[in-house]
Design goal:
Blueprint: E1 2-7, E2 13-19, E3 22-28, H1 34-48, E4 58-64, H2 68-85, E5 89-93, H3 94-105, E6 115-123, E7 126-133, E8 140-147, H4 149-158, E9 172-174, H5 181-184, E10 190-192, H6 199-211, H7 228-238
Parallel strand pairs: 1-4, 4-5, 6-9, 9-10
Antiparallel strand pairs: 1-2, 2-3, 6-7, 7-8
Helix pairs in contact: 1-2, 3-6
Domain Gcp-like: 30-153
Protein name: tRNA threonylcarbamoyladenosine biosynthesis protein TsaB
Family: Belongs to the KAE1 / TsaD family. TsaB subfamily.
Length: 242
């Protein structure tokens, strides 16, 4: 199985080729120029893997949540490649990829069975977040959502993942969304604030999803903004009167 994965969800740009369990990745932290960088990175990774677009089984991409612009860039690129090569697409949660990457870079996290709370800064004093099984990051314990930091804490208490009296929350923490004091005050067992989303983790998660029949056609690919209604209302408020 060969899967080509692309991500521009946050402040990074990455492309990876998954080939029978082996992964090659090109990764660069870049706030801008994603559009200019992507296709050369695709060519680079395919060349290193001695593969062509016609030889892959599917493409994979982060469906979100994340930066509106970043999601649109990656999804548009994947749709274009998928249409050109007549290949299906496997959408992957950016937060599950963030959780998987944090565990991959911190193998000691698997020493105790704690859940991973992946969080991205959603601006407007909110975070995109989801809770995942550290041993199986593709398994969501709490599905992706956007919330104020104090609502995240309430959801964890309600789900009995933490207790209000605990001096240290029995969870693992990954992602820049943890910069908010209400989350930092949870004092998680382990914290990786600078965790990034990598295409190699999207590719590995997509391989499992592919086996489960989760691929879609390019024209059916939809981003998971989680904030569609809020954004629409905001645009309505700022739209000039006719």
């Amino acid at each position: 199985m060969k899967i080509l994965a692309i991500d521009t969800t946050s402040g990074a740009c990455s492309v990876a080729l998954y080939d029978q369990g082996e992964v090659r990745e090109a990764f660069v932290r870049a706030e801008r120029d994603h559009t200019r960088r992507l296709l050369p990175m695709v060519d680079q990774v395919l060349a290193e893997g001695q593969s062509s677009l016609s030889q892959i089984d599917a493409l994979a991409v982060s469906r979100g949540p994340g930066s509106f612009t970043g999601l649109r860039i990656a999804i548009s690129c994947v749709q274009g490649l998928a249409f050109a090569a007549d290949k299906p697409v496997v959408p992957v949660s950016s937060l599950s990829a963030l959780a998987r990457g944090a565990v991959r870079e911190n193998p000691g996290w698997l020493a105790e069975p704690l859940p991973v709370l992946a969080a991205l800064d959603a601006r407007m004093q909110e975070v995109y977040w989801g809770l995942y099984d550290a041993a199986k990051p593709g398994v969501a314990l709490i599905e992706d959502r956007v919330s104020a930091p104090d609502q995240v804490v309430s959801a964890l208490v309600t789900g009995k993942y933490i207790a209000p009296s605990d001096p240290r929350a029995p969870i693992l923490a990954a992602g820049p969304g943890w910069q908010y004091p209400q989350l930092a005050d949870l004092n998680p067992a382990q914290l990786t604030l600078d965790a990034a989303i990598h295409a190699q983790d999207i590719a590995a998660l997509a391989a499992d999803l592919w086996k489960q029949g989760a691929a879609v056609s390019a024209d059916a690919l939809e981003p998971a903004y989680l904030r569609n209604e809020i954004t629409w209302k905001k645009r309505e408020r700022i739209r000039p009167a006719k």
